[in-house]
Automatic annotation (TrEMBL):
GO terms for biological process: methylation. It comes from the Bacteria. One of its GO terms (molecular function) is 5-methyltetrahydropteroyltriglutamate-homocysteine S-methyltransferase activity. L-homocysteine binds at residues 450-452, 503, 618. Its cofactor is Zn(2+). It comes from Sphingomonas oryzagri. 5-methyltetrahydropteroyltri-L-glutamate binds at residues 17-20, 129, 534-535, 580, 624. The gene is metE. Zn(2+) binds at residues 660, 662, 684, 745. This is 5-methyltetrahydropteroyltriglutamate--homocysteine methyltransferase. PANTHER family: 5-METHYLTETRAHYDROPTEROYLTRIGLUTAMATE--HOMOCYSTEINE METHYLTRANSFERASE. Pathway: Amino-acid biosynthesis; L-methionine biosynthesis via de novo pathway; L-methionine from L-homocysteine (MetE route): step 1/1. It catalyses: 5-methyltetrahydropteroyltri-L-glutamate + L-homocysteine = tetrahydropteroyltri-L-glutamate + L-methionine. The active site is at 713 (proton donor). It is an enzyme of class 2 (transferase).
Length: 774
């Protein structure tokens, strides 16, 4: 058979988040290590079986992880910062979870146990976004004198484990160059890539052991090959894979690239002495011609044609039109998803409440395996061999393309009528701020929070009881009102100036809006890992977006009725809703974003009409949505900023628009941040000790800023003193008249026990610094 169905990775959380449940139970001390390992082994076995049953011939192993595959790699190569070494051997679970989440026993993100911060507790490693996904990895930390040694046999063990179950798998590991390109060092100016020579022997050791265990192919992921690279970085690939070719005989490497086009790195990739190359033909279908033209005859190509990042059924007949000529021209070929299926929900069959018509348009990870198998069979045995499956697929694709559900003429007419004035506030900031100050009468350095307060187990339980029908609407509403009222009163008591309602009614800042907007569908079990045990259920944008009714006004009105202080209206912005959803692929993303922008604009205006003096429009994902290639940045930033402005610009001068962004490395996009023209922006700056403010200073940013003084990603309670110091630092960089005082981000993942003292300290710090302003 010339064509083979291959997979690059499968979600590890389990169809019902079994891994999350087990890991959190282990952290809380409710189950022991043996029970955790048992659950994990069971999940792996089921995942391999699922792929085999679907007809996948190349099944991955080592795609399982207890937290993150980059952290796994750090442990594998022994890059354990000295801080964590006293906690156990390099491959112990204790060290692993300490690197992932720090060692505070009483207040870890997901832990419910009680106690006090022990002496010698260590912080978690830094975490950041995996390329342009909503998945987060643990940033490897290396030092100039870093030594590496093979410190975990997980990849080998899991290969052997699969073999014992009758699966001859292709282990997957993260490649050495991408690993070092993602790594950071605390020593300024030190380039982690210079550690490559010391890292390669560890990879050779591992690969040799895999080979000895019986592996013939290994998938080695090098997604960095789709980024802008300089010559030294490109040369690193040649060096690394040259060493592998010299030192390993008989073991074949499938070099996997994904999330974009190889572009100007194509020649580099094609020249590497590897046996196979995987390319992403969903994100970058156009690269196929250059890849085919440049690939040696004996380079096994793996064509990523099934979208690993989205949930739409593929158009199998159209794919076959493209693939048949390639298959007949090449001796052998693999057909694969574009990237690991990690980013897709597990199984559509678990969805019982989706509109059946819409459900017919979708494929989750399990269904994508079926698509791969169907394509492969059609290529090997002819389309007739899978005629029924192809006909059903064609019917589903045609149904979606022709469906009135995806089109709303009113939305399209309205969008066509949008003119530039709609994206422009009536007056310039200098005028607006006068009107706002008169209206709001706030002290200097006003204090506020980013929106959410702790999503306690009680809040989650009430919501799930309501979802199941065990708690009626009135009971659920009463519960939420009570939570909200207590939170509003408490903020007032401790002296916060601009209040929030706490977001208790929201399951998630994106999903909540998805559930209220038309053109969106949402799943029951469509969980995707975001970081560690935390998951999200991205809504599915299938059609034109509109807002049937106000979404947040009643909760805002209730919260404002409890206080005379300004209550912020709290909304998620269009770019963030877009970036954290599964988006329709039948029109440009920017068009979908504009539709969302108009819907949120209406909500902003409704909040204003109801009396809101401040409306916050979160754009947490605007920065992370930057395209991977710099050449594509400006186009994205242009429409993203326009969408934000379209959302915000309808209000009167006196209505203050806030925005919030979590990731604050704004140096390169500060023009666009400025162009958003929010009256106030709150950002994440506490960990960087305010250094991230320099972008704003250099730009002479004129509007107001709330640089975060409280690191909410850590359960640590910041002292008044340290927040004062941060505020003084900030006021040395910017005019105190511009400054707000707030945490880095929302408080939903924290516990009340930590939030209470931390915010009291924050208000004290603001008061102390205010007093020095005179
Ligand atoms: N979409 C999105 N992306 C984001 C963020 C974000 O807030 N949203 N923040 C950044 C960091 N990412 C995060 C991602 C997830 C979570 C998180 O807390 N997720 C929760 C789930 C949130 C949720 O959807 N909650 C639902 C469902 C809760 C739930 O699990 N219910 C149980 C039952 C609960 C019970 O009875 O006790 C069930 O459905 O089975 C709700 O509150 O209604 C989790 O994994 O635990 C936090 C941060 C970046 N990306
Ligand atoms: Zn945030």
């Amino acid at each position: 058979m010339p064509v083979t169905a291959a997979n690059l990775g499968f979600p590890r959380i389990g169809p019902r988040r079994e891994l999350k449940i087990a890991v959190e139970a282990y952290w809380a001390g409710r189950i022991d290590k043996a029970a955790l390992l048992d659950t994990a082994r069971g999940l792996r076995a089921a995942t391999w079986e699922r792929q085999k049953a679907a007809g996948i011939q190349v099944i991955p192993s080592n795609d399982f992880s207890f937290y993150d595959q980059v952290l796994d790699t750090s442990v594998m190569v022994g890059a354990i910062p000295s801080l964590y070494r006293p906690l156990g051997t390099a491959d112990s679970l204790d060290v692993y979870f300490a690197m992932a989440r720090g060692t505070r026993t009483d207040a870890g993100d997901e832990s419910c146990s009680h106690g006090h911060r022990r002496q010698g507790d260590v912080p978690a490693q830094e975490m950041t976004k995996w390329f342009d996904t909503n998945y987060h990895y643990m940033v490897p930390e290396v030092s100039p004198n870093q030594s590496f040694q093979l410190s975990s046999h997980k990849a080998i063990d899991q290969f052997v484990e699969a073999k014992a179950l009758g699966h001859h798998t292709r282990p997957v590991i993260l490649g050495p160059v991408t690993y070092l390109l993602l790594a950071k060092s605390k020593v300024e100016g030190f380039d982690p890539l210079s550690l490559l020579p010391g890292l390669l022997p560890v990879y050779v050791d591992l690969l040799t052991r895999l080979q000895n265990a019986g592996a013939d192919w290994v998938q080695i992921d090098e997604p960095a090959l789709v980024l802008d690279l300089d010559d030294a970085q490109r040369a690193a690939f040649a060096i690394a894979y040259g060493v592998f070719a010299d030192r390993l005989t008989g073991l074949k490497l499938m070099l996997a690239t994904y999330f974009g086009s190889l572009g100007d790195n194509l020649a580099t990739a094609l020249a590497l002495p590897v046996a196979g190359l995987h390319v992403d033909l969903v994100r970058a279908p156009e690269q196929i011609d250059a890849v085919l033209a440049g690939a040696r005859a004996n380079l096994l190509l793996s064509l990523g044609v099934i979208d690993g990042r989205n949930i739409w059924k593929a158009d199998l007949n159209a794919l076959l039109d493209r693939l048949e000529p390639i298959a007949s021209a090449r001796r052998k070929l693999l057909i694969a998803p574009s990237c690991s299926l990690l980013h897709a929900p597990v199984d559509l069959d678990l969805e019982t409440r989706l509109d059946p018509r819409m459900k017919g348009w979708l494929a989750f990870a399990t269904q994508k395996l079926d698509e791969l198998a169907t394509l492969t069979r059609a290529l090997n045995e002819g389309r007739d061999s899978v005629r029924d499956a192809l006909n059903r697929n064609a019917a589903a694709v045609a149904d979606r393309a022709g469906s009135p559900l995806t089109r709303n003429p009113e939305v399209r007419d309205r969008l066509a009528g949008v003119d530039a004035t709609m994206a422009k506030r009536r007056s310039a900031f200098v005028e607006r701020i006068k009107a706002q100050q008169a209206h709001l009468a706030l002290p200097p350095l006003p204090t506020t929070t980013i929106g959410s307060f702790p999503q306690t187990p009680e809040v989650r339980k009430a919501r799930s009881a309501h979802d199941r029908g065990d708690l009626d609407d009135a009971g659920y509403e009463a519960f939420l009102r009570d939570e909200t009222a207590r939170t509003v009163r408490w903020q007032e008591e401790i002296g916060i100036d601009v209040l929030v309602h706490g977001e208790f009614e929201r399951n998630d800042m994106v999903q909540y809006f998805g559930e209220k907007l038309s053109g969106f569908a949402f799943s029951r079990a469509g969980w995707v890992q975001s970081y560690g045990s935390r998951c999200v259920r991205p809504p599915i944008i299938y059609g034109d977006v509109s807002r049937p009714a106000a979404m947040t006004v009643e909760w805002w009105r209730y919260a404002q009725s409890l206080t005379a202080r300004p209550m912020k209206g709290m909304l998620t912005g269009p770019v963030t809703i877009l970036n954290w959803s599964f988006v329709r692929d039948d029109q440009p993303r920017e068009e979908t974003c504009r539709q969302i922008a108009l819907a949120i604009r209406d909500e902003v205006l409704d909040l204003e009409a109801a009396g809101a003096r401040i409306v916050q429009i979160d754009e947490a994902a605007l920065r992370e949505g930057l395209p991977l290639r710099r050449a594509d940045w400006q186009h994205y930033l242009d429409w993203a900023v326009e969408c934000f402005r379209l959302t915000a610009a309808g209000v009167a001068d006196a209505t203050q628009i806030h925005t919030h962004m979590c990731y604050s490395e704004f140096n390169e996009i500060i023009d666009s941040i400025g162009a958003m023209d929010a009256d106030v922006i709150s950002i994440e700056t506490s960990r960087s000790k305010m250094e991230l403010l320099d972008a704003f200073v250099g730009y002479a940013y004129p509007n107001e800023i709330g640089p975060g003084v409280y690191d909410i990603h850590s359960p640590r309670i910041p002292s008044t003193q340290e927040m004062e110091t941060l505020l003084i630092k900030a006021s040395a960089r910017l005019s105190p008249a511009q400054l707000w005082v707030n945490p880095d981000c929302g408080l939903k993942t924290r516990r009340w026990e930590d939030v209470r003292p931390a915010l009291i300290n924050m208000v004290d710090a603001a008061r102390a610094v205010r007093a020095t302003l005179g």
